[in-house]
Design brief:
The chain is an alpha+beta fold and 176 residues long. The chain contains six helices and seven strands. A seven-stranded mixed β-sheet has the order 1-2-3-4-5-7-6, with helices on both faces. This is GNAT family N-acetyltransferase.
Length: 176
């Protein structure tokens, strides 16, 4: 499928209903949440309202496909302690990102690659990021394949070897 217009915008209060729908979808919850605990709209509001209001330093975004919400992304700066745990030098600026496509019928069509590639470029242009990391579950083959297509490399297994730490260095931007 050819995606004609993919836009990533800041998440707004009006997006809670989409998030509640997506976070109640088995395919999304398989790797982003708990399959046995779908989110209610109140749970979404409790978790994401402080982020939307910029009260916490995790910044949420909605991915739109032809002006229709289709997915979620977020970015956050990694703490110096976590950087050291992962093996990145202190003076380096490391950001983490998380994302999912909310509509399962859009899986395996290249949308994730477009989302992640666009978001990487956005973060390097608008923040002090030098390295961007993701940590997909080792069993999430679709996400790992997407990240590798976008230029991420596997660094090491983390979280008791249940997740891959993968990174993208700003030096690889010329390949985008």
């Amino acid at each position: 499928m050819k995606f004609t217009e993919v836009n990533i915008r800041k998440m707004l209060h009006k997006d809670y209903a989409h998030m509640a729908k997506w976070l109640s979808t088995k395919e999304v919850l398989e790797f982003f949440g708990d399959v046995n605990a779908p989110f209610t709209i109140e749970q979404v509001k409790t978790k994401y309202e402080p982020r939307v209001n910029r009260e916490v330093l995790v910044f949420p975004y909605i991915v739109e496909l032809n002006e229709t919400p289709a997915g979620f992304m977020q970015q956050y700066k990694i703490s110096k302690e976590k950087q050291e745990e992962f093996g990145y030098p202190s003076p380096c600026s490391v950001y983490g990102i998380d994302q999912f496509i909310g509509e399962p019928e859009l899986f395996n069509q290249g949308l994730g690659t477009i989302m992640v590639t666009n978001f990487i470029g956005y973060l390097f242009r608008t923040t002090d990021a030098e390295i961007i990391i993701v940590d997909p579950e080792v069993t999430n083959v679709r996400a790992i394949r997407c990240y590798e297509k976008c230029g991420f490399r596997k660094v090491k297994k983390v979280n008791e070897k249940t997740n891959w730490l993968m990174d993208f260095n700003s030096g690889r931007m010329k390949n985008l």
